[in-house]
């Protein structure tokens, strides 16, 4: 990333509606790029490149990288900034609606990078998880609270639907924190870098992943209630009392393995 004195995009103001907070700390940028370890042959895509801070470092190692950017005012400036890279491509679109599958094959999976806007981070992660088999790994800057939720285990106050469904597909690594003063404008929350690595062979396999997702969502609908109360409306034909599980437990006490086993019992 260029520093404040040499940044050619210094005149572009962050837009609140896009959740823009531009990273400007060179030390943090270097640490992120080291964590990613980009290589020339990578199928690398960055979500929300913004001013190109991380892009400028990544593209030196991976000249054929692609980016997905919603803010159309940034497009001509990014194109000019990286014009010397003939294989650099920009997709001007909403990442929440973008078909990432078109960029990858099983032989050439995606490596996804992004400083994700806090207001769309959770739905965007769920969207990307649907392409898990086509993704090698993901490195994201997120609100610290979201990273804690992604990495949390049973019994942790941060453990919930996002934890279970992400860990069903990926190994989660909370890498390091990023304080607000590293951004312009400064966000009101701390951030953190997380690495998500989709399993090539999942440790626990649901017979019907869509049913597992429904089960987990229903179980965590009201955290203070027991499984019996939360799951009673899951399906009228299911006999919950016949299950080999204590229905007085709360959703946050069940492990990923228990959720998968429960799903496979309900829907063999």
TrEMBL record:
Q: Which GO terms describe its molecular function?
A: 16S rRNA (adenine(1518)-N(6)/adenine(1519)-N(6))-dimethyltransferase activity; RNA binding
Domain Ribosomal RNA adenine methylase transferase N-terminal: start-end pairs: 28-200
Q: Where in or outside the cell?
A: Cytoplasm
> Which class of enzymes does this protein belong to?
transferase
Query: Which chemical reaction does it catalyze?
Result: adenosine(1518)/adenosine(1519) in 16S rRNA + 4 S-adenosyl-L-methionine = N(6)-dimethyladenosine(1518)/N(6)-dimethyladenosine(1519) in 16S rRNA + 4 S-adenosyl-L-homocysteine + 4 H(+)
Residues reported to bind S-adenosyl-L-methionine = 21, 23, 48, 69, 94, 115
Q: What keywords would UniProt list here?
A: Coiled coil, Cytoplasm, Methyltransferase, RNA-binding, rRNA processing, S-adenosyl-L-methionine, Transferase
Task: Give its E.C. classification number.
Answer: 2.1.1.182
Point out the coiled-coil segments of this chain.
217-244
Query: Which domain of life does the UniProt lineage start with?
Result: Bacteria
Q: Which SMART domains match?
A: rADc
Q: Which NCBIfam families match?
A: ksgA
- Which family is it part of? Belongs to the class I-like SAM-binding methyltransferase superfamily. rRNA adenine N(6)-methyltransferase family. RsmA subfamily.
* Protein name according to UniProt: Ribosomal RNA small subunit methyltransferase A
**Species of the source:** Saccharophagus degradans
């Amino acid at each position: 990333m260029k520093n404040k004195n040499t940044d050619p995009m210094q005149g572009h103001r962050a837009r609140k509606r896009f959740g823009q907070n531009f990273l400007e700390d060179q030390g943090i940028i270097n640490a992120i790029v080291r964590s990613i370890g980009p290589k020339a042959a990578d199928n690398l895509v960055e979500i929300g490149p913004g001013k190109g801070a991380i892009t400028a470092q990544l593209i030196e190692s991976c000249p054929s990288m692609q980016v997905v950017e919603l803010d159309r005012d940034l497009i001509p400036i990014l194109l000019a900034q990286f014009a010397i890279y003939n294989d650099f491509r920009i997709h001007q679109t909403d990442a929440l609606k973008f078909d990432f599958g078109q960029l990858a094959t099983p032989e050439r999976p995606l490596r996804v990078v992004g400083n994700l806007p806090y207001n769309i981070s959770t739905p965007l992660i769920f969207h990307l998880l649907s392409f898990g088999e086509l993704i090698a790994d993901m490195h994201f800057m997120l609100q610290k609270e979201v990273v804690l939720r992604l990495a949390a285990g049973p019994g942790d106050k941060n453990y919930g639907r996002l934890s279970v469904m992400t860990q069903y597909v990926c190994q989660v690594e909370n890498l390091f924190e990023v304080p607000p003063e590293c951004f312009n404008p400064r966000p009101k929350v701390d951030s953190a870098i997380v690495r998500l690595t989709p399993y090539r062979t999942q440790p626990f396999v649901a017979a019907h992943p869509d049913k597992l997702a429904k089960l987990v969502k229903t179980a965590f609908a009201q955290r203070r209630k027991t499984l019996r109360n939360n799951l009673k409306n899951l399906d009228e034909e299911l006999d919950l009392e016949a299950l080999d599980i204590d229905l007085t437990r709360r959703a946050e006490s069940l492990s990923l393995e228990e959720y998968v086993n429960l799903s496979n019992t309900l829907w063999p």
